[in-house]
User: Fold this.
Amino acid sequence: MFGPIIIAIAGFLLRVLNLNRPKGLVFDEIYYVDGARDYLRYGVEMSGTNSEFIVHPPVGKWLIAIGIKLFGDNEFGWRISAAIAGTICIYLIGRIALRIFHNPIWATVASLLAFLDGFALVMSRTALLDIFLTTFILLAFNAWLKARYFELSLWLGLALATKWNAIFYIAGILILEFALNRNLFRVIKVKFLALAIYPFTWIGWFLASNGWGRNYSKNPIISFIHYHFEILNFHTGLTEKHSYQANPFGWMIMRRPTSFFYQSPNGKSQEVLALGTPLLWWLSIIALIYLVIVFVKRFEIDSTIILLGIMAGYLPWFFYQKRTIFTFYAIVFEPFIILALTYLAKTLYERNERFKYLIASAIGLITLNFYYFMPLFLGQIIPYQDWLNRMWFKSWI
Assistant:
């Protein structure tokens, strides 16, 4: 497994390169870095001297807080935990590929493709919650493939305590367990252990007296439940228009990627655009279609695991057509897109070894495509015309 390790190290170096750029808080960092600061000071989130209503669980913000504690309240400190999480993802994609495909070459290909995705690079250089959610989901799948069920419960619980959409992955893994006719008691135990971990991550809220809604009832459990109903109401009722909101029908083609930052210093352009490497994502659409065809024709555990990993992160968003949602939510199933593309490459090669030239050419073109868009991934200052040349579609602006 030297391949994925070496690639992960290279990915880490790219992630920490000028990590303090751009300066200042970008996009939703304004919420999550502020929350991390509050956790370090008060144990709960505050707005001045008043308790603050928050809509995401604490774990991701605690991870950001660790970076601030170790490296200071600055851009590097805000983002270093995300960079580490993104690096772990590169390695885990390779590990999972090895367990699915049983071949270190395809494991290395999977890690390489993960390295070459600009979407993952941007999310690993920004202090948002989604890259932590992705890491915990990958850790959970890796544990499941090793049949380590206590570890599986731990990672699923931490995923849920980062963002609630982890619930769909909990359901997905349970479906896999049932499909494989495994032990019913073990399935139920995994579910309840994962859910039991969740309230423990709110320990700061339980111990504090000034957390939002903490004194709703004399019984802290009732206050906790009330708080979560309010969070649920927020998420289901979020319909405020945003210039970068994107319908999930367009996520795979990167129709409306999220711009995290833009400014024009001295007539030039500097942008951080959460854009997947276009060629990689467009080819992955073919891989996804192939997975669906395989699933319809026959039950095959390898392709089914990958397909479920995509559907658990992607399909639920189609039922929220009125909600304000963004393309960057797709990062949670991005690793399974990588695995789908690797699966297609492996299948082609096994049918005819001559396809190795096509596969190598595709990886080469993806590499060039990644390099071409790198200024937008790293927030580099480039001439305006160079930036405009990279705006292949009006919807990217």
In short: The chain has 17 helices and five strands. Strands lie at 46-47, 50-51, 258-263, 269-274, 381-382. The first helix runs from residue 2 to 16. The first strand starts at residue 46 and ends at 47.
